[in-house]
Amino acid sequence: MKSIPPLEHQQFIETVGLSFELVGLPRMAGRILGWLLISNPPHQSPSELADVLQASKGSISTMTRLLMQLGLIERTSLPGQRRDYFRLKPNAWAELTTQRITQIKTFRELAEQGLKLIDSQTPELRQRLEEMHDIHAFFEQELPLMMERWEQRQSNGLKVTTVNERVRLN
């Protein structure tokens, strides 16, 4: 049985959970991810997750399946042990972005279909679909280029600094 994490860790876990809710995902999935982001060791069994998060094993099972489907975590095992563990999937964030590029392409294609349906309509009626098309076409073009730059930075061992970090360093 694990001890309850320190208050700062609990607050982080809850903030990740709330952030998941803001984008339409279950809070518990976010809480699991939040713990896997900061847990030591980085792999956690379903029982450990249930203990730390004070959640039912059924909820942990359902939400870990969701997180695996999203490509954020993976099931793993340790040599000589029969139980399964979960951990953050390597390159999870890059894979998630690649999935988003596919979603963006789908929305651009939907906008194109809609525009064909109302081809002869007035510009006012077309505006909604044109906006949908244009923003998704833009991101469909730009995100792969950003991913290439990200991969180059990673392979060169370069770290990204935020605006706040740059201000602190100066």
Task: Describe it.
With 170 residues, the chain is mainly alpha-helical. The chain has 2 domains: 7-88, Winged helix-like DNA-binding domain superfamily/Winged helix DNA-binding domain (Arc Repressor Mutant, subunit A, Orthogonal Bundle); 92-158, Orthogonal Bundle (Helix Hairpins), CATH 1.10.287. It is built from 7 helices and 2 strands; from the N terminus they run H-H-H-H-E-E-H-H-H. It has helices at 7-22, 27-38, 46-53, 57-69, 92-117, 123-155, 163-169, and strands at 73-77, 84-88. Strands 1-2 form a two-stranded antiparallel ribbon. Strand 1 (73-77) and strand 2 form a beta hairpin. The longest helix has 33 residues, at 123-155. It is globular, with a radius of gyration of 21 Å. Pfam families: MarR_2. One of its GO terms (molecular function) is DNA binding. Residues 24-83 form the HTH marR-type domain. Keywords: DNA-binding, Transcription, Transcription regulation. This is MarR family transcriptional regulator.
Could you name the key traits of this structure?
Helix Hairpins; 7 helices; 170 residues; Arc Repressor Mutant, subunit A; 2 domains; mainly alpha; 2 strands; globular
For the record, the CATH architecture of the largest domain stands as Orthogonal Bundle
Shape: globular
Give the C-level CATH assignment of the largest domain.
Answer: Mainly Alpha
CATH homologous superfamily title of the largest domain: Winged helix-like DNA-binding domain superfamily/Winged helix DNA-binding domain
Structural class: mainly alpha
Largest sheet: 2 strands, antiparallel
Distance between the termini: 46 Å
Number of helices: 7
N to C succession of SSEs: HHHHEEHHH
Tell me the Rg in angstroms: 21 Å
Neighbour order of strands in the largest sheet:
1-2
Strand content: 5-15%
Please tally the β strands and state the result. 2
> Helical amount among residues, as a percent range?
55-70%
Oligomer: single chain
Arithmetic mean of pLDDT? 92
Organism: Stenomitos frigidus ULC18
Domain HTH marR-type: 24-83
GO molecular function, one term: DNA binding
Keywords: DNA-binding, Transcription, Transcription regulation
